[in-house]
Amino acid sequence: MSQDYSVVNFDKLTCAGNLASLDSVASNPHYTFIKSDICDPVAVEMTMAGCQTVVHFAAESHVDRSIYDPAPMIETNATGTFVLLQIARKLNIEKFAHLSTDEVYGDMEPGTFAGEYSLPQPSSPYSASKASSDLIVRPYVRTFGLPAIITRASNNYGPFQFPEKFLPLTIASALDDKPLPIYGDGKQERNWLHVQDHCRGIFAVLERGRIGEVYNIGGADVVENLTMARRLLRATGKPQSLISHVADRPGHDRRYALNCEKIQRELGWKPTISLDDGLRQTIEWHRSYTKWLTEVRGGHYRTYYQKYYENRGSSLHAITESGRKPTSYLAQAIPQPRKATTYSPRTIVLFLCGKNAPRKPQAARTIRHRQRRLLHRSLGDQIPAAITRLRRNPRFVFQQRRSHESGSPACQLGARFHAELAQ
Ligand SMILES: NC(=O)c1ccc[n+]([C@@H]2O[C@H](COP(=O)([O-])OP(=O)(O)OC[C@H]3O[C@@H](n4cnc5c(N)ncnc54)[C@H](O)[C@@H]3O)[C@@H](O)[C@H]2O)c1
User: Fold this and answer.
1) To test ligand 1's pocket by mutation, which of 61, 150, 282 has the most ligand atoms within 8 angstroms of CB?
2) What are the distances in angstroms from CA 96 to CA 147, 362, 382, 423?
3) Residue 126 annotated to the active site
4) Which pLDDT score, from 0 to 100, does residue 401 have?
5) For ligand 1, atom 28: residue with the closest CA
6) CB 99 within 8 A of CB 90
7) Beta-bridge partner residues of 156
8) Cβ-Cβ contacts under 8 Å for 10 (sequence gap 6 or more)
């Protein structure tokens, strides 16, 4: 890690996050880790305060998971991005990089390539949630002047990648002599980008990118999934018979293809790690980091693997069966509302008549006389219900406080409240 930067890593540590991947920087004085959720504005604000730049990596990123359970995608990717943008705007962050994906462009026709202004045509809840987050970023630049930039990268691979993604799953399965699950006919084309090239691209964008722009970041190689699986089997010395075709993903995009001329022309970025070298290093990494792999593939991952691969036929049928609705539709689709700030009946008593009560209700101090009368009337209307609720509360003990000296509307209200309560 460069001495020029201090990095605060803010991560919820979902099953895709793993602190063991960061052992090499954990004791670096320029590095701090905070475990929290980007949907929590208080935690985000406390963490972002004092930072100059935000690089927004956090996401629910697995397409299959998004098909089985879309709600966390929308919550983290759309709402979480909104929270980050709001706080970044409040704190006058100097640069905000929002990481997006080639998947927002959807299925590309053979021979076509998505440029930065191609229409977003997402196919899965994951890519839709990322496209939504991209759209949320745009007004923060144009309307609020937040210095944000969007990057859209192609399929990443490299060390420490959570083995639910195609490439680490395929390598890990091959090394374990387990079947390599290939969706459908395996003819889906993907553009492969080594994670170090991706990070170099993000740095180029942060340092030299134009505010408000989108930059595609893609690798040099486009390979069909089946061809990639065969290549990995050869590279690991395992038999081709390990290839196992499984049910295709509903709505599976056949082809992603990026046009990356803009980042090459404007920022001088291009990928430096060839697919051959990158795959060799990644396989070596998998051979050496067996402890890391064993740990991430225990527990939740095991359940996940059974659901998505071993029992794929039946679990997919459950979500694609015609006319079937998600079982807990509302619970899934609507995030639980945050607890609203309510004033309990006890608060009303203390507010109006407590020992330290202001001479007038706080809210009334800033509003005009007429509005104040309305406020008192409406508070007055609430007195019987508030008293009923108070009496039901086993912890409530009625104590006469002080007398209501002045004849102001607030004191009259307090006096009425006390009188009714004392009956
Ligand atoms: N992996 C790829 O091929 C690829 C390609 C293009 C773009 N991207 C984008 O790059 C980013 C990182 O992708 P990845 O493959 O490393 O994803 P990942 O799923 O492997 O990791 C996502 C990280 O975000 C964290 N996270 C999830 N929800 C969070 C929340 N609510 N609050 C805080 N942290 C949370 C997780 O704990 C995890 O550490 C994502 O925005 C993704 O859309 C990835």
Assistant:
1) 61
2) 6, 39, 47, 61
3) yes
4) 54
5) 59
6) no
7) 193
8) 34, 36, 38, 43, 44, 47, 58
Query: Mean pLDDT, consecutive 10-residue segments, the chain of 423 residues?
Result: 82 92 93 96 96 97 93 96 98 98 97 96 97 98 98 98 95 96 96 98 98 97 97 98 95 96 98 98 97 84 68 68 49 48 41 40 44 60 75 63 59 72 71
Residues whose CB is less than 8 angstroms from the CB of residue 289 and which lie 6 or more positions away in sequence, other chains included: 159, 160
Please report the pLDDT score of residue 176 as a whole number: 95
State the pLDDT at residue 418. 72
Count CB-CB contacts under 10 A for residue 7.
15
**Quick check: CB of 128 below 6 Å from ligand 1?**
no
Which pLDDT does position 377 carry in this prediction? 65
User: Which residues make Cβ contacts (< 8 Å) with residue 53, sequence separation at least 6?
Assistant: 93, 94, 95, 96, 97, 206
Q: Is 102 a catalytic site residue?
A: yes
Q: 29 burial class (0-12, 13-18, 19+ CB within 10 angstroms)?
A: exposed
CA of 14 to the centre of ligand 1 (A): 10
Q: How far apart are CA 320 and CA 247, in angstroms?
A: 12
Q: What is the pLDDT of residue 2?
A: 59
Tokens of 108: 């590309």
> How far is the centre of ligand 1, averaged over its atoms, from the C-alpha of 17 (Å)?
8
**Strands 189-194 and 221-224, how do they pair?**
antiparallel
> 7-11 and 31-35 as β-strands: parallel, antiparallel, unpaired?
parallel
Sign, Cα dihedral of 312, 318, 321, 325: negative
129 lines ligand 1 (CB under 6 A): no
Phi then psi dihedrals of residue 7, to 5 deg: -115, 130
Q: Which residue among 8, 9, 14 is best mutated to probe the pocket of ligand 1, counting the most ligand atoms within 8 A of its Cβ?
A: 14
Q: Degrees (nearest 5) of the Cα angle 267, 271, 286?
A: 140
DSSP state letter for 354: S
Q: Is the CB of 19 under 6 A from ligand 1?
A: no
Q: What is the pLDDT of residue 423?
A: 72
